[in-house]
């Protein structure tokens, strides 16, 4: 399976098809049982700085505020300034000055902050696992627009969702997985939920 | 292209991790509360069951003190890694380009500070309940406690990340940690007893502890990435 840079892919398949596992393997969190993965001609571990990953779980500390969470992770990417973090928080529709700890956030707010954590370093490859779950329809549409803008800016996006309708106008291709295998792929145009 | 992660030194990343762990602990107090409760119970229960003279205290206190700190540390280590598993945060660290050694050192240093804090708080209790006073040079206790605590923490942090994903991690950590810690624990207990009783110099035990710390810190640093990424 090969993905073209700068394209927006939607990964589909029934529950247990291996969608989340595939994302984890691309992110370097799991090893494939056979075959290998290269990203920008590099092993996935060496391409980590150029990747953003959003999982089912929020991957955030409940005891820290949104900004404190992002600040901690930003330092791991060598980003010393708060400006890109504040920008990322605003882009997902949250307030960077919100002092509340993440443990007191609603599910939807956590989901948005989790997306901000995945995009603050402007990754060239964005891996997203169900980014629209737990968010209201307006927020989902807003997130979809943000992803569309990132794709227009040149990012490659691979996204798992069951809400394909939200992305029909901006995604390029769908990939259909079944029992851990790619069984179909094609243009998004005309694909319905 | 230079990756942004490369511009960060391990020292800065380690400090970033320590700051985060201290802030999390300040807000949750998971680690300190469980350690204090356990160590406090050990001190009080033992003081009721045995009523040693000052001389007897000097002979048994070394073992008692280190047993209390060893088991308290085990509890603390489980707690400190458990918070990395909540919400899957450990995965966010693993997908970041930061060297895993920084996470290990940060965790070790934060746990080291927590255990030192516990020791400072518990020391007066030991002195009061067991009528303790050192016959030998008491300043040597500082070296013994610094080295002993680091020996427990460095191994404990390493084995805790190994056991964290297992179903019975509370049981697994002591099973992995205690056998490996035996040489260090023997040195700590012997050295502490020698200082308290003033019978002989603890220099040999202190040297042994220092070597143990260097060897295990190096080994754990070299193996940490493999253990962190094992699924």
Structure explained in plain terms:
- The complex is a heterodimer of chains A (193) and B (231).
- Chain A has helices at residues 19-27, 66-76, 83-91, 107-119, 137-152; strands spanning 8-13, 38-39, 42-43, 51-54, 125-129, 156-160, 173-178, 181-187.
- Chain A has 5 helices and 8 strands.
- The model of chain A has no long low-confidence stretch (mean pLDDT 90).
- Chain A has a single domain (8-186), classed as P-loop containing nucleotide triphosphate hydrolases (Rossmann fold, 3-Layer(aba) Sandwich).
- Chain A is globular.
- Chain A has a 6-stranded mixed β-sheet with strand order 4-5-6-1-7-8, sandwiched between helices.
- Chain B has helices spanning 10-28, 30-49, 54-85, 89-94, 100-130, 139-163, 169-197, 203-229.
- Residues 1-6 of chain B have low confidence and may be disordered.
- The interface between A and B is medium-sized, with 31 and 28 residues.
């Amino acid at each position: 399976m090969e993905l073209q840079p700068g394209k927006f892919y939607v990964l589909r398949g029934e529950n247990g098809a291996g969608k989340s596992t595939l994302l984890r393997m691309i992110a370097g969190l799991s090893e494939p049982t056979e075959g290998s993965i290269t990203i920008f001609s590099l092993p996935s571990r060496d391409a980590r700085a150029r990747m953003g990953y959003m999982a089912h779980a929020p991957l955030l500390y409940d005891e820290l505020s949104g900004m404190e969470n992002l600040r901690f992770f930003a330092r791991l990417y060598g980003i010393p300034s708060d400006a890109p973090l504040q920008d990322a928080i605003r882009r997902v529709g949250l307030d960077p000055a919100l002092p509340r700890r993440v443990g007191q956030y609603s599910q939807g707010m956590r989901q948005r902050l989790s997306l901000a954590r995945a995009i603050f370093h402007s990754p060239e490859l964005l891996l997203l696992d169900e980014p629209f779950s737990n968010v209201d329809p307006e927020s989902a549409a807003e997130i979809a627009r943000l992803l569309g803008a990132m794709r227009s800016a040149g990012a490659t996006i691979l996204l798992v969702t069951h809400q394909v309708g939200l992305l029909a106008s901006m995604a390029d291709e769908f990939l259909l997985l079944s029992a851990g295998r790619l069984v179909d792929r094609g243009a998004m145009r005309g694909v319905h939920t | 292209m230079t990756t942004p992660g490369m511009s960060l030194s391990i020292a800065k990343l380690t400090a970033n991790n320590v700051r985060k762990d201290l802030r999390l602990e300040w807000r949750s107090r998971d680690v300190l509360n469980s350690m204090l409760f356990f160590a406090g119970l050990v001190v009080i229960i033992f003081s009721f069951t045995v009523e040693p003279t000052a001389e007897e205290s000097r002979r048994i206190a070394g073992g008692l003190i280190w047993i209390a700190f060893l088991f308290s540390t085990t509890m603390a280590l489980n707690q400190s890694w458990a918070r990395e598993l909540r919400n899957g945060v450990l995965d966010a660290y693993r997908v970041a380009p930061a060297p895993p050694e920084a996470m290990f050192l940060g965790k070790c240093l934060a746990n080291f500070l927590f255990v030192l804090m516990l020791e400072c708080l518990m020391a007066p209790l030991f002195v009061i309940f067991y009528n303790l006073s050192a016959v030998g040079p008491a300043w040597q206790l500082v070296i013994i406690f610094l080295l002993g605590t680091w020996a427990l923490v460095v191994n404990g942090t390493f084995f805790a990340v190994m056991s964290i994903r297992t179903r019975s991690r509370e049981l697994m950590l002591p099973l992995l940690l205690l056998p490996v810690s035996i040489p260090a624990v023997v040195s700590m207990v012997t050295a502490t007893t020698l200082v308290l009783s003033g019978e002989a110099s603890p220099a040999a035990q202190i040297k042994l502890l220092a070597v143990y710390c260097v060897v295990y810190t190096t080994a754990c640093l070299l193996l940490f990435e493999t253990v962190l990424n094992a699924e």
